[in-house]
Amino acid sequence: MSETPRDRPRRLRTTPAMRRLVAETRLHPAELILPMFVREGLTAPSPIGSMPGVSHHSVDSLRRAVAEAAEAGIGGVMLFGIPTSKDAVGSGATDENGILNVATRAVVEEVGDAIVVQTDLCLDEFTDHGHCGVLDARGAVDNDATLLRYRDMAIAQASAGSQMLGLSGMMDGQVAAVREELDDHGFFDTAVLGYAAKYASAFYGPFREAVQSSLQGDRRSYQLDPGNRREGTRELLLDIEQGADVVMVKPAMSYLDVLSDAAALSPVPVWAYQVSGEYAMIEAAAANGWIDRRRAIEESVVGIRRAGADAVLTYWAVELAGWLR
Ligand code: PBG
Q1: How far apart are CA 190 and CA 187, in angstroms?
Q2: Residue 248 in this model has a pLDDT that exceeds 80
Q3: Among 5, 52, 170, 174, fewest CB within 10 Å belongs to which?
Q4: C-alpha distances out from residue 99 to 33, 119, 151, 154, 309, Å
Q5: From the CA of 63, how far away is ligand 1's center (Å)?
Q6: How many angstroms separate the CA atoms of 121 and 119, rounded?
Q7: pLDDT, tens digit, for every residue of 108-120?
Q8: Catalytic residue set
Q9: How far is CA 89 from its chain centroid?
Q10: Which of 33, 204, 253, 281 most suits a substitution to test ligand 1, by most atoms within 8 Å of the C-beta?
């Protein structure tokens, strides 16, 4: 006995050439963005234990690494700074001699506009309490006082040459505040990336080590509850209304439904951030020989693109770009 089905989807899977021809999702280096860390006081790169393969850079090594990223053809870099000293208001974030602003100037001087240089606009790396904003008298994160700090930070970063500001702090009204401040200072071409749907995630664990976070407690009073899909949409719409040039969903792999909603509703590009924990999990499993590293990396990024991301922030951006060439 045998069946002869009429519909045979397997026809389109017969050879590598056929599969390539019918592939629905293709990766390209231009839609990859590399997050990078620069640490004040370093003279050489220093590996991050929880993120094997990723290092803290000195200003000089960052410069070179960004030039290499440009040569690899990736779309952009997102810079994070780690200062030697922190205080309650995150002074280092708005100081033109603060590490992130110094590094941004150095990088832009090196690569010009061969690659889009973006900077993280958030206070958590710069505050001694580790929160993304300043605190009120009771120790709660003060939304509106934080917006004033973000305005100053935006001008410091735009003046340093950042072309796109990554607003990752999840304060209400942050996109509108930063857009207004940039325009008031004539920075009409500095773009705003709104981390619209950013969830309070355990997958940021390795990043917190990477930025030597001093956080006590958690960020649940400003980042989204992992179970909330509708609220993710609300945040996306608010950021778009406030003038975000690009919106982001973060983390990526556990939030593919939110990403798919965002792709369906957004008139601006939607990006996704494959965060440190997603990176560390695959690296750890691969190091143990439990999964095929390259295939797992490619599949993870293809899945994020398939769900609707126009571009992906991933710590594998340069390595992946090399495989794609
Ligand atoms: C906050 C920020 C975080 C990440 C990027 N920006 C983490 C947090 O909210 O603690 C996480 C990135 C990652 O895990 O790769 N400024």
Answers
A1: 6
A2: yes
A3: 5
A4: 21, 12, 18, 15, 31
A5: 22
A6: 6
A7: 999 999 999 999 9
A8: 198, 250
A9: 23
A10: 204
H or E, element range at 100: helix 99-111
Mean per-residue pLDDT, 94-103: 98
pLDDT of 300 above 80 = yes
Hey, where are the domains in the chain?
A: 27-324
Chain centroid to CA 190: 17
Pocket test for ligand 1, best of 80, 141, 168, 218 (most atoms within 8 A of CB): 168
> How many Å apart are CA 308 and CA 84, to the nearest integer?
39
CA 142 vs. chain centroid, Å, equals: 24
| Residue 216 confidence (pLDDT) | 85
- Ligand 1 contact via 278 beta carbon (within 6 Å): no
CA of 250 to the centre of ligand 1 (A): 9
Give the strand pairing for 76-82 and 164-167. unpaired
**What 3-state DSSP class applies to 1?**
coil
What confidence score (pLDDT) does residue 163 get? 98
Alpha-carbon span 299 to 295, nearest angstrom: 6
Peptide bond into 269 cis (omega under 30): no
Does the predicted TM-score (pTM) go above 0.85?
A: yes
At residue 74, the pLDDT reads 98
Residue 191, amino acid: A
pLDDT bracket for residue 212 (50, 70, 90): confident
CATH number of 27-324: 3.20.20.70
Q: Which burial class, exposed, middle or buried, applies to 277 when counting CB atoms under 10 A from its CB (0-12, 13-18, 19+)? A: buried
Tell me, in angstroms, the distance from the centre of ligand 1 to residue 18's CA: 40
Q: At residue 1, does pLDDT exceed 80?
A: no
User: For residue 81, what are the β-bridge partners?
Assistant: 38
